[in-house]
Design brief:
Layout (H helix, E strand, L loop, with lengths): L1 E7 L11 E5 L9 H11 L7 H4 E2 L2 E2 L3 E5 L2 E2 L15 E6 L5
Parallel strand pairs: 1-7
Antiparallel strand pairs: 1-2, 3-4, 5-6, 5-7
Length: 99
């Protein structure tokens, strides 16, 4: 299943500063949720395991990271229960900035 995963707002630091990832997910359409995508990202995209806590907390995306599914807030799509579809675009944007 093809998808695009984007890391914005400085969150690209967890993936060697690559902002956009076009991936072929190892799931059948209709058989995986955002929970599975989060696990996939941790296992295959985050380059340094010590950066995983930057992205997840308590088995979900950390507070302070805006999650969009096809430009729609994931809260309107069912959050972790959203069923992945081929061609989806998943955008993760950090809203926390250092200073």
């Amino acid at each position: 299943m093809k998808a695009k995963i984007e890391f914005l707002g400085g969150l690209d630091v967890i993936s060697s500063h690559v902002r956009e990832h076009k991936v072929n997910l190892p799931f059948e359409e209709g058989d995986a949720t955002i929970r599975d995508l989060i696990r996939y990202i941790c296992e295959n995209i985050i380059t340094d395991p010590k950066d995983i806590p930057v992205f997840i907390e308590d088995d979900s995306v950390r507070p302070g990271i805006l999650v969009l599914i096809n430009d729609t807030d994931w809260e309107l799509e069912g959050m972790e229960e959203y069923v992945l579809e081929s061609g989806d675009v998943y955008t993760f944007t950090s809203t926390l900035h250092g200073g």
